[in-house]
Amino acid sequence: MISPLLFVFCTSVMYWTCQASQHVYMVILRGPSTVHLFEDPFQDSPQIYLPSQLSPSEYASYLVSTHDVLLSSTFREGTYKKLYSFSHLVNGFSALLTAQQAEILDQSEEVVLVERDNKVTKQTTYTPTYLGLPAGAWQDEGGAINAGEGIVIGLVDTGIDPTHPSFSDNTLKPYPNASRYEGVCEEATEFPKGSCNKKLVGAQHFAEAAIASGEFNATIHFASPLDGDGHGTHTASTAAGNNGVEVKVDGISFGFASGMAPRAHIAIYKALYPGFGGFTSDVVAAIEQAVKDRVDILSLSIGPNGPPPGISTCLSTFDMAMLSASKAGVLVVQAAGNAGPYSHSILSFSPWICSVAASVHDRTYPNSLVLGNNASIEGTGLASATPGDGMYTMILASDALREDGSDLLDVNDCQNSSLFNADVVKGKVMICSYGIDYLFGGSSINDVINTINKLSAVGVVMFATSDIEGRFSIPATPFSIPAIIIQTNNGSKTLLNYYNASNQAATVRIKGGANAKFSHETPKVAKFSSRGPDPENDNLQIADILKPNIMAPGSNIWAGWSSIGKDSHEFKGQQFSMISGTSMATPHIAGIVALIKVKNPTLSPAALSSALATTAFSVDEHGNPLLAQNPSSNTSIQLGPGTPFDFGAGEVNATAALDPGLVFDAGFEDYVRFLCTIPGASGVVQNLTGIECKNTSSSVTMLATDLNLPSITISNLSSSRIVPRTVTSIARDSETYTVTITEPNGAQIAIKPMEFTIAPNSTQELSISITPTKSESKPSFGYFLLAGSRGHKVTVPISIVAKST
């Protein structure tokens, strides 16, 4: 079945209208890829014996040749264009085809799946301290100078600014070689030889589908790994930027930045571009190359705009490529999406992916002003205060016009200094408007700053117009002058009423917003963060997977920025920016996983995800539930108790995740057994993985509920169930664990055994009996806790909709 697939990256959503004649399609063929055919795709030892005893590289070449033969034998030369051959993670290709050609391929016996490729678009100074890294996880690894050393984090994003100090290898302690990494560093005029180093070990770009679409413009999009957007530089520096890099914006210092794993290596795979975003084929090609290059972790601030129509959420080419990455030992960390706060808005689906929600941390940059009548108004703006403690006269922009400017309709946006009388404005604070045009590039803060400076004004107060208040959030905005943006209509009315009543004698003092304030409150789920469960409710087996999995800071995150970045015009020309999204939360987790891998290098991707989940903060220090902005259980309230469908297992606890005591492990065969329960999936599974779904008996298949995940989710508990789980000890000593249970409403839970002693590297089976006691119309939540005698605490969230008969 031909299935369109649309992706969203960061906060914007864009739609692609293709050329009428041809589109890019991804075509998946029968037969396993390299990862699925060989025990170790990097060794010359095939898992099954081929007639010619091919090596992995020879087999990959063989697959590429089959792609070429299929196309050339089916269509006339010159009527199509192959863009990529996929051979490592999936067996297939992407090509520029007509809809009729795609339909012909879809009917071919050699073809498993045809997906039309659509456009993709995009989805820290304090967070290391906030997450307890300096005194915890970093200290455990010998300090920031060692944290994450030797691990390669691959990021599929918008590229990187190689000149940024966050990626320099000229550090106090020399970087070692990334000995396992096999990637390359592309060279181009704007990305010259020497752009990579022992910190930035690899950089490649992928744009074949973007070029074929006609949207790629080499003069502005750069056919190289250079980041013309800013987003990729931001995520890379969050994951593994150097420690102690000063954050300076418009001459104001905001502290010193560090990535979560400041000594880890970075490999960039550019597949997204300013303006139009990118295409799925380019993203899949980037993922395949990253795994082939032997990255340790993949950070993807990218995800589908919704469930792929016509196929299971778990069976898209994108998700199957990530399953293959997991088989190759690479944990994929993926943004949950920015479609919150509504339930079933999660954009990261499969159980082999670590899906990341975004939290609001406790650092803010409040700004305010004091009027001459002693009224105070709160606002925003990363700006200095007006000089001294004195008051300054205000002048509304429209009252400072030159005589020949009086016929203009709207001058309060202060975009053109030539319209105003400098003698009237000099030494005063100018009042300007802030409307929706500032969010979409029609008006510029830089033009306001230029106006203030050219007129020799002291600063600016900007009031929100009616088209923005209550509809859009005003982003963190840097100013090189004293400034404030009033965000509410009430605040704007208070300002303008005072000014109009004062007969142009109104005065003001701007307090400034350059100094951080810390509330020391519990983390909160950000409003924009996508919520679970999986939207595919017509297939309850798939809905029985907890999503998201983990939460990390994702609101107002300081991190590196490309000086030519176009994604945030507020930070144009800067080396750092403060932006928000689950895109920002994801590299926090990728960096923390790097820290875990240093201490526990043999853990599987599933075990790494488990270490994050079972040690997370699911309640605050008082035992109260974590809060969520507009919780999915009741989006009408601004702030209330969250649930696992909002935050997964909870806010990441970086230090505890290094030493979780027990992990819930799962492997590729477990995921295949799960996929075999999905109606109509057996053929796809067999042809993509080489594994046959022989029958539907319990010995072969595995329900989603029975996957060995660090959570239990049952969307329709109509009768008693026995849910199996197995824990593996990765602790250094034997430990005795005691089980305690907090039951969800409408369910009775019993666990055997309730106490056990487990030795290092040993396993313990748990039998969890769950019985409905009364019907519930909505999900209810509980958990069980494994408390160890040596201090380990393993928490497993439970989400159930009980249907008692």
Provide an overview of this structure.
- With 805 residues, this protein is α/β, with parallel strands linked by helices.
- The protein has 5 domains: 17-117, 2-Layer Sandwich (Alpha-Beta Plaits); 130-361 and 530-597, Rossmann fold, CATH 3.40.50.200; 366-515, Glucose Oxidase, domain 1 (3-Layer(bba) Sandwich), CATH 3.50.30.30; 666-707, no CATH class; 711-805, Immunoglobulin-like (Sandwich).
- The protein is 21% helix and 25% strand.
- The protein has 20 helices and 41 strands.
- The strands form 10 sheets. Strands 7, 8, 11, 14, 16, 17, 27, 28, 31 and 32 form a 10-stranded mixed β-sheet that branches.
- α9 (280-292) packs parallel to α10.
- The protein starts with 6 loop residues before the first strand and ends with a strand.
- Its main location: secreted.
